[in-house]
């Protein structure tokens, strides 16, 4: 039987968020050995090689992920130490992801406690026990804290510490939920039918609940703390407590998680063909409240159903962008009382929103960059130009 060909048209994320002209072409700058981007990349690779607890495989994966390319796309005009701090932030999230997905729930709880201690002590491990020091990557995480926090200053540092803690605990909760579903799947000896997208034995997850759960587990909150520091955006911690700023942060988290789901679907689907995956495109097809239901009938093909899932993701993305912009307009028109006429508040809000969207565009272009092998989204230049995702999978 010939392989099944999956072929879907992907939405233009940059157009949705008003960043049509944002392509962040920085590869040529990375080739200049004297450019800050190139210097930061070399230092980043040097740090990776210095971490004794990284396996050779992990070091290779980290380098192939081209995190420095993403940082360069986000901050092409930043100096070397600001680029380095953002790379360290990405390393923190990578280590959290690796540990949480690999270790047991019990170990993850211990790791969270120790990593929290490191964050709140400036990377000091002197009070840790021998057992705590043997937990995964403790020295590497302590080093990242020491390389990052002193640069930020109290206006940004305290919020960054809090944001990284929220991210870590959110990822641990997410991991527990995934394992519960996996254990349920393993309790069924036979594989689900490949004739349908649906496995009725697995309880469906609400698409909206999935989107909300993922807001914190992609690490965007901490990334926005770095963003404000890089661009010298002087919004105060008190001002940022306004619920409209919080809505902006949550929607920015959705921007990131939805980009990840859109461009990682091929990789995730091929890893476990036709089995439930943690991806909005798939989850939407199981949720009876989504618009994808109208396309699903006895004659609809797998491609039709998956295209409906992609279209639903685009709808959610558009809605998230609209809510984000509504908060920006509201904050400028009706500042929080604590602003008390502070000069420059409106400019800070505009800049915060503008730079958030620029970094979102950078994430999208990095995810589909031809040198980024993590997702390998488009098979040919022509398919890239037309935003068509095409791949084969055995029936």
Task: Kindly describe this structure.
- The protein has 395 residues and is mostly helical.
- It contains 18 helices and 2 strands.
- It has helices spanning 13-16, 27-30, 36-50, 56-64, 67-74, 80-102, 105-120, 130-133, 138-152, 154-186, 207-214, 220-230, 237-240, 243-271, 280-284, 302-333, 345-367, 381-386, and strands at 4-9, 388-393.
- It has a two-stranded antiparallel sheet.
- Helix 7 (105-120) runs parallel beside helix 9, helix 14 runs antiparallel to helix 16 and helix 14 packs parallel to helix 17.
- The protein is globular, with a radius of gyration of 22 Å.
- Residues 191-197 have low confidence and may be disordered.
Features:
395 residues; mainly alpha; 2 strands
Give the topology, please.
Layout: E1 4-9, H1 13-16, H2 27-30, H3 36-50, H4 56-64, H5 67-74, H6 80-102, H7 105-120, H8 130-133, H9 138-152, H10 154-186, H11 207-214, H12 220-230, H13 237-240, H14 243-271, H15 280-284, H16 302-333, H17 345-367, H18 381-386, E2 388-393
Antiparallel strand pairs: 1-2
């Amino acid at each position: 039987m010939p392989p099944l060909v999956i072929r879907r048209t992907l939405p233009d994320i940059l157009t949705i968020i008003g960043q049509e002209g944002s392509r962040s072409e920085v590869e040529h700058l990375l080739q200049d050995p004297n450019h800050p981007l190139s210097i930061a990349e070399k230092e980043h690779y040097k740090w990776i090689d210095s971490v004794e607890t990284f396996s050779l495989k992990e070091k290779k994966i980290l380098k192939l992920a081209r995190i420095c390319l993403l940082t360069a796309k986000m901050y092409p005009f930043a100096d070397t130490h600001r680029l380095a701090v953002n790379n360290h932030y990405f390393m923190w999230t990578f280590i959290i992801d690796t540990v949480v997905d690999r270790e047991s729930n019990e170990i993850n709880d211990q790791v969270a406690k120790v990593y929290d201690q490191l964050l709140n002590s400036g990377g000091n491990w002197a009070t840790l026990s021998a057992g705590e020091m043997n937990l995964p990557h403790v020295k590497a995480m302590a080093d990242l804290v020491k390389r990052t926090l002193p640069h930020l200053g109290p206006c940004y540092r305290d919020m960054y510490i809090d944001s990284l803690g929220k991210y870590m605990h959110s990822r641990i909760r997410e991991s527990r939920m995934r394992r519960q579903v996996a254990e349920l799947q393993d309790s069924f000896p036979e594989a689900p039918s490949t004739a349908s997208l649906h496995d009725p034995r697995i309880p469906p997850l609400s698409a909206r609940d999935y989107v909300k759960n993922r807001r914190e587990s992609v690490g965007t909150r901490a990334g926005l703390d770095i963003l404000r520091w890089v661009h010298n955006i002087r919004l105060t911690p008190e001002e940022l407590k306004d619920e409209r700023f919080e809505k902006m942060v949550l929607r920015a988290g959705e921007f990131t998680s939805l980009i990840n789901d859109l461009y990682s679907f091929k990789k995730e689907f091929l890893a476990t063909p036709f089995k439930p995956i943690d991806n909005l495109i798939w989850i939407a097809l199981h949720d009876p409240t989504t618009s994808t239901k109208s396309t699903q009938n006895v004659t609809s093909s797998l491609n039709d159903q998956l295209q409906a899932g992609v279209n639903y993701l685009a709808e959610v993305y558009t809605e998230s962008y609209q809510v984000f912009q509504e908060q920006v307009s509201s904050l400028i028109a009706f500042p929080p009382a604590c602003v008390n006429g502070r000069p420059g508040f409106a400019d800070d809000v505009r800049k915060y929103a503008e730079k958030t969207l620029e970094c979102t565009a950078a994430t999208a272009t990095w995810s589909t960059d031809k040198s980024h092998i993590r997702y390998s989204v488009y098979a040919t230049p022509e398919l890239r130009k037309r935003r068509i995702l095409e791949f084969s999978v055995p029936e």
